[in-house]
Automatic annotation (TrEMBL):
Pfam families: BPD_transp_1. Keywords: Cell membrane, Membrane, Phosphate transport, Transmembrane, Transmembrane helix, Transport. The chain crosses the membrane at residues 33-54, 94-115, 127-150, 156-176, 208-226, 276-297. This is Phosphate transport system permease protein PstA.
Amino acid sequence: MSTVGESAPRARTTPTNDDFGGRSGGRAFKDQLARILMWGAFLIALIPLVWILGSTLLKGGHMLLEADWWGKSQAGITARREGGGAVHAIQGTLIQALVTALISVPIGVLTAVYLVEYGRGRLARVVSFMVDILTGIPSIVAGLFIYAVWVTTFGFQRLPIAVCFALTMLMIPTVVRSTEEMLKLVPNELREASYALGVPKWKTIMKIVIPTSFSGIVTGILLGLARVMGETAPLLILAPYTKVIATDLFGGLMGTLPTMINQDRDQTLQPALDRVWGAALTLILIIFLLNILGRLIGRFSKVKS
């Protein structure tokens, strides 16, 4: 017969290895195996990247060191003749990217603001679904769509401004999704504090929400811009290439770095091949600088801090 002073058996509270479904040695082996597989996959994915960058740098790096590359065009330069530069293609790429950004950024940011701050019901679901559709369309489909509307339907000529419209279709979903995620990171306490002071919702968005997430929004814009600058299909369909400097979006001809690469890609003569590799390296360098700029701006994001 048990007495009152006799204590009951104490329950085991310290977990053992069996409580976690296996021995510690087995879990350690699985962890190490997963680590090796992940690093192996990373190195395998890194091989083609390093290969491409190395080949482009070795074959086109000397072109970027020449003064003419940054100051002259390809006017009067044939495939057999050395020399010439890429200033016409660089200017055309930057002009089209700037106009594309001027069209895409307001539309993308306002769409994201609507989805996060106002979007409710069927209309918001339709808008979000359409953004998802635009995210997945290939660039050639965007080019063919603008060609069907711009040239076939309205009868206009193939112009560089039409390329900007096609690139806009590719850039808008990137801007929308990146801006939407940054707006969602803004603490609701900031909105509620503003509402408690009697500030209208539209002024809260303009004065509190957007400035707080501004750095992240700019980062997403730069990343979207870096994506569309390397597109080739809309350029081939909508904007004929020219070797001279052309800055008029309504002039009919404009040189860009992707079309400069495509122009001489099937050449076997060394001067033409050097210019192709030089244009490819220049495009990579511009996109690389945009990505670095986006990362630097993201480090100073108010949302992160």
